[in-house]
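Hi everyone,

Forwarding the result from last night's run.
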Amino acid sequence: MGDEITLTASDGGRFAAYLALPARLPAPGLIVLPEVFNTNPHIRSVADGYAAAGFIALAPDVFWRQEAANYLPYTDEGRAKARALWARLDTDQFVRDLGDMVAALRGRADCTGKIGVMGFCLGGKNAYLASTRLPIEAAVSYYGVQIDQHLEEADRRTCPILMHFAENDPHVPAPTVAAIQARMGGSPGVSIHVYPGTEHGFNREGYPPYNEAAAGLARQRTLVHLRQLLS
């Protein structure tokens, strides 16, 4: 289990993040960006899992500039609140804040200095943007939404990226995945996987539409990717 810490943005704003440490230090850093439901118990458990795998895992409060400490449940009410917060999120400002998180992790005495960013849904989009805008060593995107709206940035990638998509995903439909594959597939440092029979959120253990086989395979691929680039 980790602890909640406070980070400071470049403009002086202070915000919370969940930090989970591995048993052995120093270690590489990994920022875990949540779904639109923010850094709720599920995402904290994901961070715990990657800490157990050897990474300093940091999962931020994504909506701190809108309304701090909204960690939302997978309910209709939680979904409605999440969408309202997302509508107010300034993507460019969030990526700048993400750059501050990268710097904070890299500056820790117990960090090796190598940083990866991974994310789910909304976090998957921001992990992609981290790969094009920030000085990181690795990125992983799980069913990232709206990536097709930022494909003009693809040539600015600064690190390898691993992308996981669900076969049956109304939020990232097949034509969107096809556009991403057409623009990025086959490029050096890009790996794209589509998981048959899965839906958006297939990694969400304990909640529908969790798919154990796909989640396990995606995590295995993610660990290989991160260890190759961050070790």
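The domain at 3-230 is CATH 3.40.50.1820 (Rossmann fold).

Cheers,
N.
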